[in-house]
Inverse folding.
């Protein structure tokens, strides 16, 4: 900010502040219309005009103040500028001359650079043409040299092939760079003859060496294949001439019928070492071995075996018979392990597993289809049993319901050796969890599944549930962990918790049913007043028969059931509490009715003229009714104690009600 600006702003601060920010005028993007539009929203145009006039006056005063303060500097400035224009004119001519000279020199240098660049490009083109010419001459010389070597044929074939291969390798190098040139294309017929001679003779020598077991000859052929960069062709030749006939004899339907798949695999494993020992010993993957690039096991032997299996005995891949499929797959995995041992080196095993034939062979096994068949078999067994869940169980069973026994059988079946396949371990674990959850769903739906459901069946289901949640974690640990050590036990615990959480639903079903049956006897208590009104019956000394009906169903269906003791006590207490509460309500109604009847009779007697003033001491019908109710309640308490149900607060309230009732 300049000195002038600072002076103006300081002057404004000393006076009354204006309605706008003075700094806005020093902004490069200042716009009058924008300024007015923003400020007229907050201030009137009249006040804005006054402040702008004040601001203009302040600026003028500040400029005068600035000039007065720096007057000497203004005068010196005009004095110092005298003659400056003459000095500038004197410097203009030499500077213009220098600029012209620089432009001339620059143009000259640029011209020289362009000439040199053109000569360098021409030189590069000449060098490239010279290189092409030398290469074409070398191609011609090499072809002539190779033809002379072949025509002379004065040395051993293996040595001749090796010399020809060395020269032919150089020839291929030049041809690969200039094969589009007319000269090279004219040479192709001669090159093709050389290639045919070399390939035919080399293949013959290689096959002859393999048949005779001549290690030196085979090694020399392999070196020539390496020199010619025809490793893949040598592996293909080995597969067609040696391995394919051998595997054809061993892998066929007749051998499968006679020996079985394991026997076929064993015969292949027994026959491979004699057939492959020569080439494998020469191509060990050591760094100092010049023949280590060959992969006969992965590129020649195994693809032939896979091809013959797929063509000659494709029936082993059929998943329709799960037992045969499972055994065939296990035999195949065993064979792959033994075959990898024959490879001998880790590098060979890695190359084998990365080969497309290895992956194709494994993909032939329809593991998802096999699992679906086993899923239908195992889950179907449980579903079939759920149709008749309360049929008799075997005498040696640990459970009371066949459904519970079938659940354990299905879980064990998932992990049987004749069912489980290692790649499907996670799927069978998922199936195990699904079986547990299906059992939990069945338990939850059990109360509403049938109107003919017996309470004893529900009690058996509860006992089985208690045993299951205790057994299942150990069962799964013993069957799953050997095959799937990393399984999550919380999944099993959650499934068991779901099974346990179904017990309250079953308990509610049983207790509600038992409660309703027991409470039917309460209706008979309503008839107690009719037994004694105007019947001249003696004062009661024994409880009525309906009292036993209040606890009969509770005793037979729950107390004498197979339920675990904790459930017995809980369910009995729940039913007894409900029965006592309802019985309390019924007796309360009877006692209230008795009180109203007594009050009505008393009013009639007082209003009757000539009524006897002498009170009677004999038991009235109402007293007999009260006595009978007290006997009944006392008998109910005795019966509950015999069952093992302690007297609770509700029963004590009931007993107090009948004990304290009087006229």
């Amino acid at each position: 900010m300049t000195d002038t600006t600072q002076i103006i702003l300081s002057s404004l601060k000393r006076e009354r502040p204006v309605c706008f920010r003075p700094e806005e005028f020093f902004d490069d993007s200042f716009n009058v219309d924008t300024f007015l539009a923003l400020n007229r929203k907050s201030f009137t145009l009249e006040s804005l005009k006054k402040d702008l006039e004040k601001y203009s006056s302040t600026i003028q005063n500040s400029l005068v103040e600035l000039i007065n303060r720096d007057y000497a500097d203004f005068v010196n400035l005009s004095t110092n500028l005298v003659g400056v224009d003459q000095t500038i004119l004197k410097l203009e001519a030499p500077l213009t001359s220098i600029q012209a000279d620089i432009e001339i020199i620059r143009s000259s240098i640029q011209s020289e650079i362009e000439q040199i660049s053109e000569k360098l490009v021409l030189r590069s083109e000449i060098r490239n043409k010279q290189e092409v010419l030398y290469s074409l001459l070398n191609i011609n010389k090499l072809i002539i040299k190779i033809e002379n070597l072949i025509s002379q044929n004065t040395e051993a074939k293996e040595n001749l092939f090796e010399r020809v291969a060395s020269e032919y390798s150089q020839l291929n190098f030049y041809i690969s760079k200039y094969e589009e040139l007319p000269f090279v294309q004219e040479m192709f017929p001669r090159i093709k003859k050389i290639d045919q001679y070399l390939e035919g003779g080399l293949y013959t020598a290689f096959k002859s060496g393999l048949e005779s077991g001549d290690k030196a000859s085979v090694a020399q052929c392999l070196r020539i294949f390496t020199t010619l960069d025809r490793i893949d062709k040598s592996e293909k030749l080995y597969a067609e001439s040696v391995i394919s006939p051998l595997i054809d004899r061993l892998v066929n339907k007749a051998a499968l019928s006679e020996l079985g798949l394991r026997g076929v695999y064993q015969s292949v494993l027994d026959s491979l070492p004699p057939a492959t020992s020569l080439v494998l010993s020469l191509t060990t993957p050591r760094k100092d071995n010049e023949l280590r690039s060959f992969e006969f096991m992965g590129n020649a032997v195994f693809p032939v075996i896979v091809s013959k299996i797929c063509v000659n005995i494709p029936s082993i891949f059929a998943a329709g018979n799960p037992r045969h499929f499972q055994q065939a797959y296990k035999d195949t995995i065993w064979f792959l392990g033994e075959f990898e041992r024959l490879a001998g080196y880790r590098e060979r095993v890695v190359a084998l597993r990365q080969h497309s034939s290895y992956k194709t062979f494994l993909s032939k096994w329809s593991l998802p289809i096999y699992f679906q068949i086993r899923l239908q078999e195992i889950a179907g067994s449980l579903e079939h049993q759920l149709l008749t869940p309360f049929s008799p169980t075997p005498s040696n069973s640990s459970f009371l319901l066949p459904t519970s026994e079938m659940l354990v059988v299905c879980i064990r079946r998932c992990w049987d050796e004749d069912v489980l396949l290692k790649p499907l371990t996670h799927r069978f674990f998922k199936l195990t969890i699904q079986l547990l959850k299906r059992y939990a769903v069945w338990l939850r739906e059990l109360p509403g599944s049938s109107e003919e459901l017996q309470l004893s069946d529900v009690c058996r289901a509860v006992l089985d549930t208690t045993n299951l949640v205790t057994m299942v974690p150990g069962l799964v640990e013993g069957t799953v962990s050997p095959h799937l050590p990393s399984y999550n036990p919380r999944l099993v615990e959650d499934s068991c918790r779901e099974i346990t959480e179904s017990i309250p639903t079953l308990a509610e079903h049983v207790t509600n049913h038992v409660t309703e049956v027991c409470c039917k006897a309460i209706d008979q208590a309503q008839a107690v007043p009719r037994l004694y009104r105007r019947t001249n019956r003696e004062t009661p000394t024994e409880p009525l028969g309906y009292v036993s009906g209040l606890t009969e169903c509770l005793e037979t269906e729950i107390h004498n059931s197979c339920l675990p003791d904790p459930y017995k006590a809980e369910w009995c207490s729940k039913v007894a509490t409900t029965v006592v509460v309802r019985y309390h309500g019924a007796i309360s109604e009877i006692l209230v009715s008795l009180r109203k009847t007594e009050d009505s009779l008393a009013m009639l007697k007082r209003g009757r003229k000539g009524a006897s003033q002498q009170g009677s001491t004999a038991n009235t019908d109402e007293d007999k009714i009260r006595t009978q109710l007290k006997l009944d309640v006392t008998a109910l308490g005795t019966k509950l104690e015999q069952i093992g149900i302690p007297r609770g607060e509700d029963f004590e309230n009931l007993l107090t009600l009948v004990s304290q009732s009087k006229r």
User: Anything to note?
Assistant: The chain is about 75% helix and 0% strand. Confidence is low (pLDDT under 50) at residues 609-615. Residues 84-152 form the longest helix (69 residues).
